[in-house]
Amino acid sequence: MRGKEGTVEVPILKQGEFLIATFQAALSDADLNQLRRGLVAQVVRFRSRGVIVDVTAMDVMDSYASRTLREISQMIRLRGAETVIVGIQPEVAFAMVQLGLTLEGVATALDLEEGLAYLNQRFKSPD
Amino acid sequence: MAKRDSPAPLPEAKQYEETSELLRELVAHLRQNRTQLREEWVARISETRLLTAMTKEEIFAEATSVYDSYVEALETETFEALQAYARNLSERIIPRGVETHEVVGIVLLLRDVLARSLFAKYQTDFKKLNRILDAYEPAANRIANTVAVGFVQERERVIRQQQEAIRELSTPVLQVRERLLILPIIGVIDPQRARQLTEQLLRGIRTNRAKVVVIDITGVAAMDATVANHLVQTVEASRLLGATVIVTGLSPEIAQTLVTIGVDLGKMNTVGDLQGGIEQAERLLGYKVVAVAESR
Hints:
The complex is a heterodimer of chains A (127) and B (296). Chain A is α/β, with parallel strands linked by helices. Helix content of chain A is 43%, strand content 17%. Chain A has helices at 29-45, 63-78, 90-98, 112-123; strands at 12-15, 18-22, 50-54, 82-86, 107-109. In chain A, strands 1-2-3-4-5 form a five-stranded mixed sheet. In chain A, helix 1 packs parallel to helix 2. In chain A, 38% of the residues are buried. Chain B has helices spanning 11-32, 34-47, 56-76, 80-93, 100-121, 126-170, 191-208, 225-240, 252-260, 274-285; strands at residues 174-177, 180-186, 212-219, 244-248, 269-271. Chain B has a five-stranded mixed sheet with strand order 1-2-3-4-5, with helices on both faces. The radius of gyration of chain B is 33 Å and the shape is elongated. Chain B starts with 10 loop residues before the first helix and ends in an 11-residue tail after the last helix. The interface between A and B is medium-sized, with 19 and 18 residues.
């Protein structure tokens, strides 16, 4: 799935009210930027209420990827939706906190299922 | 070896050849008197009350194999087979409580028994006896060394294994309810144990699909800044996996440490005791514990 500039296109799937983006193992900074643009644009186009970013396949999370995830989360909030990052591997998680990349203010969940449960919970009508 | 018509060989080579020659003679002698020497050795072993954990028959059987490996090592001047045998022997006798001094003791006894038999054989030819001993002693010492080192290495391996097992046991990750894990920590936490603890917890979160984890450190009297920092990192890493961590049972000393290193308390969810921690975890998970009417 190489795009015309040699970038890897991250598929963004629409699932009901939510968007789901699944990372592949090795994404360049350019790929990440493209993903950010895509998500921020589509979240309003599809009137989505939540975005799930699945990073299960990533076995390394560098500072740029981590910052991008945080920015995605913040931008999506400004566009009126919620983001949850799912599938961070245990080893990756510990490596991240050791580097000080704690994704503060970003919602996280164990896997896709948990992420969906989290978003559904958030948007349940208050009673 | 065929004698060649050459100028005087180098002294070293000559000496080596002579040593081999002597060792061959020695080995032949030991083979010839195998039964008698072996019995003498076993008698000495029971006399000195070594290997009391083993029966007489077992001692005799082991003595036979040791004797044969010993002679073989002398003959071939290679120690790999003996080393392997020593390791194998140690593996069998360590669980029965055989001590290092016993193993070293019996090998030294064998060395002495054999040396005595050499004295007896060459008592008339003092010069020859000296040369035989020159060849025998270094080889015998090396054998004793090999066996002792083999035994100690095996023991160290067993100890390492047990340490590993204890360490695994010392950090249980327990599931008390669906999606609720407890990690009781007792004793001193060193950086290595802290790392292992984190690993087990993060793996436990994943396999049990936990949403809330209660880390109880009532049994930890104090921790240094490194370990405290590690604890905070563990809490953050757990959050990245989507689990909330509640830390309970912080002692005044640990509270002091955390304040001194300037932990962001907003990230740490702490409750006074384990009971309170579990109650809060249940609230987070939406459980409600109700007393059953008839038990009142």
